[in-house]
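Reopening this ticket.

The earlier resolution said the output was attached, but the attachment link was broken on my side. Pasting everything inline this time so it's all in one place.
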Amino acid sequence: MRADASWIIDFKYPPSVATGRRRPPAVPPSPVRRASRAAPTRLACAAALAAAGLAVAEPVQLEAAQLEARIGVDALATGEVQLRRSGMTIRADRLGYTVADDTARASGAVRIELDGDVFRGRELVLQLERFEGFFLEPDYFFARLQAGGRAERIDFIDRQRSRIVRGDYTSCPREGDAMPDWLLSASLVEIDLERNEGRAEGAVLRFLGVPILAAPVLSFPVTDARKSGWLPPNFNIDSRSGIELGVPYYWNIAPQLDATLVPTLLTRRGLSLGGELRYLDADFRGIVSAQVLPGDRVAGRTRSAFGLQHEGRLGAWAYRTDLQQVSDDEHWKDFDRPGARFTPRLLPREFALHRALGSVERPLEVYAAVQHWQVLQGDPAALIVAPYQRSPQLGLRGRGLALGALEYAFETEFNRFDRPRDANDNLPSGQRLHLLGELAWPLRAAHGALVPRVAFNAAAYETDRPMADGRRSAARVIPTYSLDGSLVFERGLQAFGRELRQTLEPRLRWANTPLREQAALPNFDAAGLDFNEISIFADDAFSGVDRVADAHQLTAGLTTRIVDEASGLEQLRVSLVQRYLLRDQFVTPDGQPLTRRLSDLLLSGSAVLSPRWTLDAAARYSPEFGETTRAIAGVRFSPGPFRTVSLRYRFARDLSEQVETGWQWPLYGPVEGAPRAGGDCRTTVYAVGRINYSLRERQLTDSLLGFELDSGCWIARVVAERRATERGEARSRIMFQLELVGLSRLGSNPLAVLRDNIPGYRLLREPAPTLPPPRNHDAP
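Inline output:
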């Protein structure tokens, strides 16, 4: 039959026919019935196939302007041809389909669309069920990666495997025969999706026409799944180590185990080897990292670092360990230590385990730990006091409700305190048993709360040598009584065309702790709290257990807020708080009695002036001296995506005065509100940075300066960082990164540095943040 209109014919056949495992019986040629779009013709009967014990495969739908077909044999379609099957669409000027081997042969402007990916070429032969065949002179585009390329030929082995002959790959737009900004080309590329492996022979990566990477054989992953192989090199310049060039190798050992080895050349120091091992199991997980630099030419010795972070469960017990170790005191100045939880000069060596007991209403926890430290001293003029070692620490804590309305909490703990082996001080060592407890009767309502509370701090000591009063053992119990009251007043108001709600929140807290002599007792873990809006309402002026400030005081605070009714966002907050001393205080962090009745006045506030402008400030004012002792104020301007500038002023009288500014701002080219696609080749240049300037010392302290150039299909970053290590010493480095969109990032990674140092920084191509839902729909 020949049809000169637009028709659809729907083929169905046994899958055994399509796969070639069983040839169908001979079918004599017969005329084709006319078929319309509304009622497609089926060339095999599904019911008959099912009766014969053969499963019905996915149908093939063929649409064209002109079509010639023989029922159950073949079809020839011309003019705007479309073949559809199993989510795949083939478009062509001319297409022939054979039922017996389930093969399509297309020519002209051939186009395949499959799961968003597009292939275009001049000639295609494809066995549909097995997805086996070849495509001549195709262009291809991967939707997920927003990248593609050209090839002389693609051989489809099956849906998981293919072979690209003399092909290339890029996310940059092509203009005729001109070379894209970056291009990865290879003589042969074999892709195996099932094994997540791509293998390229004769691979060359060119950037702006210049070869920057070449390999006779290159293996790479083809999905986001992990795969063993070499990673892009790291490159940066460091003032203390010279040029650093590292080539990481990733080893996918098992689904729950992998490792990365990084041989690195440091031009001033020598060759180092670093590595990281990660493991994950149902009952435990962890990271082991190590680095060794044999024969450091600058230091004249071998340098090394080791780290272990591990956590897991043993039955009902949970445990964790954190072990950090470096070879020398100067290591923190010369090398980075990623993932540091403490200061760069304080390295933990600890092990802890705990077990939950009790119930949800009355949780109870028993725990044990050992905690030691490695303290990096270095400069004798800048020594730090090493913390005590706890070996061991044993404790039990709990909280809950008693008698239906009383809230209780307690903690009892035994510690053995020792000085580090290399500590050069005369501090005492010994052991302590303490018990902390509190009982409260809270009266809470929607408009406020009143909370009376009684607490105590009890401790017993034994020291290895006599204390200041000659004793080697001592005990004391210190009670605290407090009453905390707060109210909340609200009113609605309209301003700037919006519905707002204003609150007024007064708070008054009374606390009384009697004086107990503590000067002769050892101080293992107590330190003075910073004076701020949180600590001013605390019972004690100390952290830890060994010191308890005697205090009879009244603390008053007032806060007002303005909240947007629609979004629940806080538009304005102003707080004022001050403490009044009802009697002199003798146990203080600095050891000097406190006789001044009125404390410093704490003021703080923040405001969202518009979606572009935000302000925040805090000050500490001394009524005794009539001056501000501390202050901090900041402003941020963010008029749009990837545009942010912040300015912050910090002041501490007689200590420091600093100005800090950070920014990410376009200098040239358009800035889009949404992440750019690879086809957008308009160039944009951004400046990024952060500068800390000491007004007191009239010099720069820490600084970060850089540029980001986004061309659409590649991003280049150059970031220079200067970080103070000790007085008069600093470490500087320059980091380079080239991000080829859709392929990889080459060079050192400055992104973490930019995020940590520039308020409001956004990664290029990162989607814009969305506003939170209205207040009434917020998740708890």
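Reporter confirms the inline version is readable. The longest strand covers residues 448-463. Residues 1-7, 12-56, 770-780 have pLDDT under 50 and may be disordered.
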